[in-house]
Amino acid sequence: MAVQSSVSGLDSHLGYWLRYVSNHVSQAFARKVEARGVTVAEWVLMRHLLDEEPLAPSRLAEHMGMTRGAVSKLANRLVAKSLVVAAANPADGRGQILSLTPAGRALVPELAALADANDAEFFGDLDPDAYATLLDFLTQFVERRGLKSEPVD
Fold this sequence. Notes:
Strand order of the largest sheet: 1-2
Number of strands: 2
Structural class: mainly alpha
Number of helices: 6
Radius of gyration: 19 Å
Helix content: 55-70%
Strand content: 5-15%
CATH class: Mainly Alpha
CATH topology: Arc Repressor Mutant, subunit A
């Protein structure tokens, strides 16, 4: 005999559906950028540098919502891949600043195109108004909640 349960089902939670969609979208994108030799976290760091370089790792940590140590590890991996260069910070001489190398600068638009294609693959069947509404809702939600950590994994 089946026992009636008052425990809500997984699919009755909005968070379940957000995670379900997010996992599929994120994993597909991760596979695409990894085929180009970088991780999603490395792509996010490089994308920030494209907009505002040179940057100190501490500033990147603020932008990305990560620890300085985590950003330093990402930066070191990108330096080893010759996509980012680290130099002494001329403002204080003690710290470092990070910039894209020419190879890194050339790769960022390619990765952005992959992000655009991934978005189109998963959300291209939404009509433009539905897409804009969903995007607006999610960005407002992030702002209202004060969420700071960027999705990098």
